[in-house]
Amino acid sequence: MTNECSNAVQLKKSLQINDEINVSSNTVRRALKRNGLSARVKRKKPLLSKKHRENWLKFAKRFKDWTVSDWNRVVWSDESKFQIFGSDGREYCWKRQGETLKDAHIKPTVKFGGGSVFVWGCFTSSGVGFLCKIDGGLDAELYCQILSEDFMETLRYYDLSVSDVIFQQDNDLKHTALLTKQWFEDNNVEVLPWPPQSPDLNPIEHLWNDVDRRLRALNVTIRGKDALWEHVSQIWNETTLETCTKLIESMPARIQDVINAKGGYTRW
């Protein structure tokens, strides 16, 4: 399959237009299966530019020698949205078993699209931190308040000092605002340099996905944002230490996969 043709219908149209070959979509599917390809749901990934790939690769090479002990110092943070209803918007593609992810296998996403409850959370090598529900928009001032309360309270809960940890966040404008930078400086918090468009490298994304999966698996009808928040926070707090440990232990493999993919998409 090519980047231009990621499914049987697209390939059928391409054969008709470019090669004047008229075949049915089912014929194309059978041919694809005979050649070892099978239908897969396109994985949602942020759209990567050439510059993004260069930054990914530069970051991965910089931290390729970090051990699990080094990564255990990191406090991983992010925001996410959860929704009660809505289509998953699945798109399908054809991919060989074990084949490296390519652009044709990806459905680019825009962060925070849709949803009805917006949260901030973090996790450490000791377990998940405090989860914060964000009502309305998030600006740099509110973000600094979250850091002062929920992030610092997480450190106190696990008996960690600021000097024990390195804080991770993405490159959202609220995270890199002058006010936010000043907060980190005033509180002597070391911030991990982080390349843009890089959820592959952030294990907290897997926690968000796990919360969403467990939320959808509940045999209950969720009515309203308050009920949704209660379920999300309960599921988050039930996250095991083993889950957090395994995610952090995956970091050396994530880094190596980025290097192997030359800054491109990885299995994560």
Helix/strand structural class = alpha/beta
Overall tally of structural domains? 2
DSSP summary: helix tally: 11
Order of helices and strands: HHEEHHEEEEEEHEHHHHHH
Strand content: 15-25%
Let me know the largest β-sheet. 5 strands, mixed
Uncertain spans, ≥5 residues at pLDDT below 50?
109-115
CATH topology of the largest domain: Nucleotidyltransferase, domain 5
Q: What would you say the CATH architecture of the largest domain is?
A: 2-Layer Sandwich
Average of the residue pLDDT scores:
84
Shape: globular
* Radius of gyration based on Cα positions: 21 Å
Could you walk me through the main structural features you see in this protein, from its secondary elements to its overall organization?
This protein has about 270 residues and is α/β, with parallel strands linked by helices. It folds into two domains: about 10-35, no CATH class; about 45-260, Nucleotidyltransferase, domain 5 (2-Layer Sandwich). Helix content is about 45%, strand content about 15%. It has eleven helices and nine strands. The protein has helices spanning about 10-20, 25-35, 50-60, 70, 140-155, 175, 180-185, 205-215, 225-235, 240-250, 250-260; strands at about 35-40, 45, 75-80, 90-95, 105-110, 115-125, 125-130, 130-135, 165-170. Strands 3, 6, 7, 8 and 9 form a five-stranded mixed β-sheet that branches. The chain has a two-stranded antiparallel ribbon with strand order 1-4. Strands 2-5 form a two-stranded parallel ribbon. A hairpin with a 2-residue loop joins strand 6 (about 115-125) and strand 7. Helix 5 (about 140-155) runs parallel beside helix 7 (about 180-185). The chain is globular. Mean pLDDT is about 85; it is low at about 110-115.
